[in-house]
Write a structure and sequence with these properties.
The structure is a single chain. By secondary structure, this protein is an alpha/beta fold. The chain has a single domain (2-90, 107-150), classed as 3-Layer(aba) Sandwich (Rossmann fold). It has helices spanning 8-20, 38-48, 86-90, 92-95, 113-116, 141-149, and strands spanning 2-5, 26-31, 63-68, 71-77, 101-105, 119-125, 132-138. A hairpin with a 6-residue loop joins strand 6 (119-125) and strand 7. Helix 1 packs across helix 2 (38-48). The protein is globular, with a radius of gyration of 15 Å.
């Protein structure tokens, strides 16, 4: 599904709607160029799950853990990853085996994560500084279920058929 998001509030509304439909465990991969809104989407997603603290970009730490209402969330940013073997030292593969939610930015630096993902999001810059285009795709049965549970009417824009 393709969304045209004219302002940041619409990006945040999309993330919140997806969080409300969430059934853990779930792996999200977020693609897009620098500044496209990946971390903005993650912050809104975490706020909708009840996290009220700071959500820094994990660009330097690679992984930031969050505890939300009865749920563990891992925010992973692989932008600075030089070699997928670095993930072994972090024990990141083990994080996939629990009941947690994983949000992975720059998944192309960890090729095997696509096979483990449930929902794929691709953010692109839009026609104005604040506009974004968001493409959402279910990558698994769990992801399809999540998209079916989403309250699309709560979003500022309805999906545009591709």
């Amino acid at each position: 599904m393709l969304f045209d998001l004219d302002v940041q509030d619409q990006t945040e509304a999309h993330a919140a709607a997806m969080a409300r439909a969430l059934d853990a465990p779930c792996v999200f991969v977020l693609r897009g160029p620098l500044g496209a809104g990946k971390t903005t989407w993650v912050r809104a997603f975490l706020r909708a799950l009840g996290h009220d603290g700071i959500v820094p970009s994990p660009t330097y730490t690679l992984v930031e853990p969050y505890e939300t209402v009865g749920m563990k969330v891992w925010h992973v940013d692989l932008y600075r990853l030089q070699d997928p073997l670095e993930l072994e030292a972090l024990g990141i593969r083990e994080l996939l085996d629990g009941d947690a939610v994983m949000l992975v930015e720059w998944p192309e630096r960890w090729p095997e994560i696509d096979a483990r993902s449930d929902v794929r999001l691709h953010l692109r810059h839009g026609d104005s500084e604040s506009a974004r285009q968001l493409e959402v795709d279910a990558a698994s049965e769990r992801g399809r279920g999540l998209l079916e549970r989403m309250e699309w009417g709560a979003l500022p824009k309805v999906p545009t058929p591709r």
